[in-house]
Please model this.
Amino acid sequence: MSTAMQTSILPTAPHYVLGALPAVAAPRAPRVDDSQLIRRAQGGDSTAFEELVRQYDRAVLRLAMHLTGSPEDGQDIYQEAFLRAYLNLGSFRFECSFYTWLYRIVTNLCLDHLRKRSSRGRDLTTTLSSEGEEENVLDRVADQSPSGSPERRLIGRELRESILRAMHKLSPRERMVFELKHYHGMRLRTVAGMLNTTEGTIKNTLFRATHKLRAELADAR
Model:
């Protein structure tokens, strides 16, 4: 497979960022059944894979950006996930949904990313500005409501900082399971499929994560 061919079918990250999607999404063409698209793509039809990308690009980018906490890292994982999906589509055996298979790729990439970032000891509440300087991500989410007094903004900021500190006490896998369940509203069975484990294991992981968070937030009061 040539590099040019790979590049031509891979997605370019959409212009929107997490939390800034339009209130009403632009209408899309009627959804084509995944199985039909996969079989066509496995047969060499690049337009079928492009359609699969269009059907899942928003969801994949949202997930990657949220789990990494970084638009830049999220977009890198978004690109890598679709590249891996394209290169490995021939091995897809329809034993699970394409949605689960694709999200498994994304979550594994995010897990690897979080583990590497944790091993480097970087403070996950900071990111690099466009000028290359570190800035606190909490500064980007100040209370802009008319009733947002300085006192209320301070309390809100302190609460967010406490939650972030508590989340950083979790292992990458615990954080992943907690966020997929509570921030993305996914069923534990779905999370188990994505992480290629049993629902019972995911329940135990979620229990540990919840217990750690409660303990950390209780100490912060």
Notes: The domain at 1-120 is CATH 1.10.1740.10 (Rna Polymerase Sigma Factor; Chain: A). The first helix runs from residue 3 to 9. The longest strand covers residues 126-128.
